[in-house]
Design a protein that fits this description.
74% helix, 285 residues, 2 domains, mainly alpha, two-stranded antiparallel sheet, single chain, 9 helices
Length: 285
């Protein structure tokens, strides 16, 4: 059995860490910065495609799907740049098997993607929020500030006590107290993900009838209609959050794949294995 001869160069290479943290950090910073720039571009494109006017701009569903696809595209482009740079900037490994070099390049791309993801979430998260918040403020500062100060539960309570009469009845002395109590009941019930108990339903129906001059039957019907509307809004918000989570997961997975693939390509170019558009296997010793 032959014993491989180890030279001083091979021994020195083994003594060094196989992870090039400097190149990984450089690639991660480039990937994070690219994500921030592409995010700003995406916000601009998104505002250009929507419009408050009827029959103008894209629909809400199209906008949501386009946003998810753009998130995936941003992750792929930024991660590919980071992984490619991490592989090109690393030190060449001497005397390493071709398969091992392939694995190390892949690992460098994956680590670069992970580093960039953590960096984007922790350090650049405030910058991304500032970009989105600034654009939203430019689109409608007054409306946005007003929306932040409105409790969604109060909107549904206002619909409960809305009157259609031309001359509404005189407001009872405890009208504000009745609305405040209805808001507390509504908030505590729907924040817990449940439904109004029969006793609270009957009580709210009596409050609505006394405040609006409606009959008890009409008050109960309005209460049921508003409850259905509130549940539909909550279900729509839940579905939107679920889709956003799925798109975010897809962008992370595609970003990781793009980073590893680009790192392998960058490593091959770094080692000079592409000659005349033909892939030449790496020599190993």
């Amino acid at each position: 059995m032959e014993t491989p001869i180890r030279t001083d160069a091979l021994a020195a290479a083994d003594a060094q860490s196989v992870v090039s943290w400097a190149s990984i950090a450089a690639g991660a910073v480039v990937a994070a910065a690219s994500s921030l720039g592409l995010l700003a571009l995406g916000v601009g494109l998104g505002l250009s495609s929507v419009s408050p006017w009827t029959d103008s701009g894209v629909s809400a569903s199209t906008f949501k799907n386009a946003t998810g696809i753009y998130m995936v595209a941003v992750a792929v482009m930024a991660s590919a740049m980071g992984g490619y740079l991490a592989a090109r900037l690393r030190t060449r490994w001497i005397g390493v098997n071709t398969n091992e070099v392939f694995f190390r390049d892949t690992a460098h791309g994956l680590i670069t993607w992970a580093f960039a993801t953590v960096l984007s979430a922790s350090v650049l998260g405030a910058a991304a929020t500032h970009i989105v918040g600034g654009v939203a403020a430019g689109a409608g500062a007054a409306a946005g500030q007003a929306a932040q100060n409105v409790n969604p539960s109060r909107v549904f309570v206002d619909r409960l006590f809305r009157t259609d009469a031309v001359s509404p009845p005189a407001t009872p002395t405890g009208a504000n107290d009745a609305r405040a109590e209805a808001t507390r009941l509504w908030t505590s019930t729907f924040n817990a993900g449940g439904d109004l108990v029969p006793a609270d339903r009957s009580y709210l129906a009596r409050l609505i009838a006394s405040q609006t001059g409606m009959s008890q039957a009409d008050a109960e019907k309005r209460l049921n209609d508003v409850i259905v509307e509130a549940k539909a809004a909550a279900d729509s918000a839940r579905k939107g959050a679920a889709k956003l989570a799925f798109w975010l997961t897809a962008s992370l997975l595609f970003g990781a794949f793009a980073a590893t693939l680009a790192a392998v390509e960058g490593g091959q170019l770094r080692d000079g294995t592409w000659q005349d558009r033909r892939l030449i296997p790496r020599p190993w010793y």
